[in-house]
């Protein structure tokens, strides 16, 4: 009897599993994150129809996307503080209602200012849903089940931007662009129901609101919002040739300086940059910043190539993009077990290697490249994204305590989005300058003294002359055709170089993966 009691005491107790309410809370967080990530990109494919309907000319329509990203990146790091002030349940339900309200405003918009205001409101409300989903997983699930929750969250973050263009393109082509926003209504109703059942009632703590780091909040809001606009609009405005970009850059620099000052003066800074002293967490942030640039960069590059060179519409381009989501669905059942048993550093390195290889597979593009030529690289890219992002989600939470989970989640998601904005700005500048460079080089080689060039023009002119019998017009058509071919070749060469540069940037992140926190011995896996 004594021996059996001793054995019972010596046997390790199996940690309790999450309750049904915990899983409902995780499902609610994941659905909210899907809502937010989907709306980042769902309007991109419907942008031409939206611009035509609301009377936005030229590049004015870019503010529809910029407004969302600008407010979202400000809200993400504020989420941990606002959750402490209003309580998680109150905060998420309020944000869901606001997100729905601003979505309806966008759907009924008849002018650009109305649409941009609606998108800014969507960004504020949606920005809160992404880090809170990660926080719910970190705080509601026991350690041995956390890989399952983090896999759910990671898949949402990956699939949202992939599904957005497909859903938006289909709705714009087959129903109406306004349904890109009206679609949020039934999803939001389901989300509120899950939040009511999954989260406990909580109390408002106005003391934390009054005694907040207001200096840091002002610096964060001014710095990140202006920085996002500079990165998103800089290339279109020719950077510092624009007085708007100059002044926004000054405000952004001042805001970030104020935010840094607040790190030393506030009792509890609004953004806890001190977390970056933890080398494991800092490595996660650096990697996710670069991977964010890769994710957003590919989401921009591939549809642009397919549209400009292959002549695809938004729906067709979205279908090609969705191929990279196939590995995520295939790996979904086994991924939590793999993350629980294999060193996260190995998985991240394998993911970065696959992501790098997928970029290198697209450096041999030609003017004849079409959608199916990207299938292999897209599948490889999907594997790389899953293997890199899923362990990074868990590593970011494993590197900090539960009390720091909210602040860590905000900084993690801010780094991913900021990496995307920086990556898109650099890619836009790179594409613009390298396209001009290649165009000039090709045109210099195809001169009046070029025998090959003259033969090509004469052959083309002969074909046009045979169709209408006007020699002068036939030569003009031949010259126009040659100019168009030069433009296409310059674009193809530039996109190949851009994929190469992205691949190199991702490969340079591999050494950082060795600094990730080694899983503690005896940590139960998801399979136990």
What do these coordinates show?
There is one protein chain. By secondary structure, the protein is an all-alpha fold. It has 22 helices and no strands. The relative contact order is 0.12. The longest helix is centred in the last third of the chain and has 41 residues. Helix 5 runs antiparallel to helix 9. The two termini are 29 Å apart. It has 4 domains: 195 residues, Growth Hormone, Chain: A; 57 residues; 189 residues, Up-down Bundle (Growth Hormone, Chain: A), CATH 1.20.1250; 59 residues, no CATH class. The N terminus and C terminus are likely disordered.
Provide keyphrases for this structure.
528 residues; Growth Hormone, Chain: A; disordered C terminus; 22 helices
Helical region count?
22
Secondary structure: helix percent: over 70%
Radius of gyration: 26 Å
- N-to-C CA distance: 29 Å
Instruction: Give the overall pLDDT as a whole number.
Output: 79
CATH level 1 class label of the largest domain: Mainly Alpha
Task: Return the string of H and E elements.
Answer: HHHHHHHHHHHHHHHHHHHHHH
Secondary structure tally: strands:
0
Strand content: under 5%
What characteristic shape results from the CA principal axes?
globular
Assign the CATH topology of the largest domain: Growth Hormone, Chain: A
Assembly status? single chain
Question: How many domains, as an integer?
Answer: 4
Tell me about the biggest sheet? none
In CATH, the homologous superfamily of the largest domain goes by the name MFS general substrate transporter like domains
Low-confidence stretches: 1-6, 519-528
Query: In terms of structural class, how would the helical and strand content be classed?
Result: mainly alpha
Q: Do you know the CATH architecture of the largest domain? A: Up-down Bundle
């Amino acid at each position: 009897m004594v021996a059996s009691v001793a054995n019972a005491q010596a046997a390790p107790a199996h940690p309790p599993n999450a309750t049904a309410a915990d899983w409902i809370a995780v499902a609610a967080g994941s659905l909210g994150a899907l809502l937010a990530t989907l709306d980042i990109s769902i309007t991109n494919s419907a942008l031409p129809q939206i611009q035509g309907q609301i009377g936005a000319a030229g590049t004015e329509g870019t503010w529809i996307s910029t407004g969302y990203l600008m407010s979202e990146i400000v809200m993400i790091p504020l989420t941990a503080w606002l959750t402490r002030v209003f309580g998680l349940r109150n905060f998420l339900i309020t944000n869901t209602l606001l997100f729905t309200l601003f979505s309806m405003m966008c759907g009924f918009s008849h002018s650009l200012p109305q649409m941009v205001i609606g998108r800014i409101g969507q960004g504020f409300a949606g920005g809160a849903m992404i880090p809170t989903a990660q926080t719910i997983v970190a705080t509601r699930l026991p350690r041995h089940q956390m890989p399952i929750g983090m896999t759910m969250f990671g898949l949402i973050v990956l699939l949202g931007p992939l599904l957005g263009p497909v859903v938006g393109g289909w709705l714009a082509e087959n129903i109406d662009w306004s349904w890109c926003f009206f679609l949020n209504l039934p999803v939001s109703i389901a989300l509120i129901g899950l939040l009511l059942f999954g989260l406990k009632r909580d109390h408002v703590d106005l003391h934390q609101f009054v005694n907040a780091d207001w200096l840091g909040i002002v610096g964060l809001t001014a710095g990140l919002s202006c920085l996002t606009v500079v990165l998103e609009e800089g290339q279109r405005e020719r950077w510092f040739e624009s007085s708007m970009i100059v002044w926004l850059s000054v405000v952004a620099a001042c805001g970030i300086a104020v935010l840094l000052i607040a790190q030393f003066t506030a009792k509890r800074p609004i953004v806890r940059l001190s977390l970056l002293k933890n080398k494991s967490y800092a490595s996660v942030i650096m990697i996710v910043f670069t991977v964010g640039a890769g994710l957003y960069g590919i989401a921009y590059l591939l549809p642009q190539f397919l549209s400009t060179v292959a002549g695809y519409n938004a729906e067709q381009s979205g279908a090609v993009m969705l191929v990279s989501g196939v590995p995520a669905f295939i790996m979904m059942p086994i991924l939590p077990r793999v993350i629980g048993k294999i060193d996260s550093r190995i998985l991240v390195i394998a993911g970065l290697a696959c992501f790098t290889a997928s970029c290198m597979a697209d450096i041999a593009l030609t003017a004849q490249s079409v959608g199916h030529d990207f299938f292999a690289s897209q599948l490889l890219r999907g594997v790389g994204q899953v293997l890199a992002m899923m362990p990074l989600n868990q590593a970011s939470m494993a590197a900090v305590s539960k009390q720091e989970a909210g602040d860590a989640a905000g900084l993690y998601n801010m780094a991913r989005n900021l990496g995307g904005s920086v990556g898109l700005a650099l890619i836009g500048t790179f594409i613009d300058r390298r396209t001009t460079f290649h165009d000039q080089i090709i045109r210099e080689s195809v001169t009046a003294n070029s025998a090959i060039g003259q033969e090509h023009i004469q052959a083309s002119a002969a074909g046009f002359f045979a169709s209408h019998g006007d020699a002068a017009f036939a030569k003009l058509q031949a010259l126009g055709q040659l100019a168009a071919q030069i433009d296409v070749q310059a674009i193809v060469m530039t996109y190949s170089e851009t994929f190469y540069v992205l691949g190199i940037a991702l490969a340079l992140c591999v050494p950082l993966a060795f600094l990730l926190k080694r899983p503690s011995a005896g940590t139960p896996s998801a399979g136990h």
